[in-house]
Amino acid sequence: MLPNLVAGAEVIIPMSQMRWLLEQPDHILNQREINREFLHADRTMLHPNVIRDTVHGHIIKREMTKNLDNYANVIVNEIEHALWLNWGVNDQHWTEIQAYDTLLDVVSRISNRVLVGLPLCRNREYLRSTSSFARNVVITAGLLNLLPEALRPVLGPLITAYDTSHYRQIAKHIFPIIKERMADFKPGLDYRKPDYSKHDDYIQWALHDAFSHDDPAERTPEMITKRLAVLSFAAIHSSVITITNVLFDIASSPRSEEFQQAMREEVRDVTSRHSESQQWERASLASMVRIDSALMESMRLWGFLSRGVMKKIVAKEGVTLPSGEHLPYGAKVGVTAYAIHHDESVYRHAYTYDAFRFCSESKDENKNGSAHSLVTSSNQFMAFSHGRHVWYVTVKYADRKRLQSLTQTL
After folding, report:
1. Pairing mode, if any, of strands 10-12 and 326-327?
2. Would you say 131 and 123 are in contact if contact means Cβ atoms under 8 Å apart?
3. pLDDT-based confidence at 149, cuts 50/70/90?
């Protein structure tokens, strides 16, 4: 039996109840509410509507994700430029680098190449503001979590002031672009018939979407810029952590040379079978199972989510678990990812980094070996949650593309 619980209490349920947890509708158990509370999103995400609706998510999914192949060569071009600036091209001598700091700049440049395009994606002041905003959101949320609830309205603006200052720097560059482009838009557009002949970036997509719906608030430079800043957080923060971890994992492994050589060979083999314009498209990337596995294995070991799935009970009457216990409104219920990811009965040598654990070629050696893809979650792999709200769309796909180019450089 569970003890008497209060709103905000957290309950970890057994994996046997995972299916029940995933099947609960959002008006009973809500995963977005967990994210909103953890990040103090009403304050850190610049505007309450940014986290409460999914306008920018729909725009990215509709305009970018389905056409990601169109950006393949652009992304690779920016990767090469960003690595040249941050790591150089000296192949004769070892060079010491700050992995996280340089990758923060690399990932910021790559993400902004797609979100805002040239030349702004190479503007140092703009890059510094977007990367600083992305890095500090979680820190700011952590500080807000330490405050008693009664003090948050008073001290919250002081704690978020640094993030707000970076938003203003972002706005200084974005507002003029939005205002200039607005002259070409009129209400009543059909978002299903886009025309991005002049510009093909998030600003243009957001404007087209805003003028397709009768919501004047979404057409303001303020709202478009705030959504863009939050997208930068989503695209940059987790990607930098993921790639930094995997590079350290590869470099520190006793099998480092073997892993690096095998991944280089895979990239060369796959790209050699495609024309230059198709080398980095989805079909090519899907063939690079070793690199996909290397990313998955690092996320299994060091994923930034300790809870695989966590939802807040939003039904006023509470909810009853399959085991019979009743949980009240406001309590949190979920399953752990860390325990599963480090369970020896699921992953042999669970605390060892095996870059190719998830490759189909390892099937005979690993209990869980399969041609499992990074963008596919399961009961045994929940590095970025699981279920219908699992988050991977463009960020995780971009992670893989970035690592593949980085592998050629290592």
Report:
1. unpaired
2. no
3. confident
H helix count then E strand count, the chain: 17, 6
319, 311 Cβ separation under 8 angstroms:
no
Transcribe 219-284 into DSSP letters: GSHHHHHHHHHHHHHHHHHHHHHHHHHHHHHHHHSTTHHHHHHHHHHHHHHHHHTS-TTTTTSHHH
Residue 181: what residue type?
Answer: R
**SS3 (DSSP) at 382:** coil
The single-letter code of the amino acid at 343 is D
> Residue 361 — pLDDT band, cuts 50, 70, 90?
very low
What tens digit of pLDDT does each residue of 255-278 get?
A: 999 999 999 999 999 989 888 777
| Spatial distance between the Cα atoms of 284 and 272, rounded to a whole number of angstroms | 10
At 410 the pLDDT is 45
- The C-alpha atoms of residue 51 and residue 36 are separated, in whole angstroms, by 7
The whole-angstrom separation of Cα 301 and Cα 299 is: 5
Structure tokens at 138: 């979680």
Residue 327, φ and ψ in degrees, nearest 5: -110, 140
Name the amino acid, one letter, at 385.
Answer: S
Between 267 and 401, where is the model more confident? 267
Query: Amino acid identity, residue 77?
Result: N
Sheet of 307-313: strand order equals 10-12, 332-336, 307-313, 29-30
Handedness of CA 403, 274, 202, 81 (dihedral sign): positive
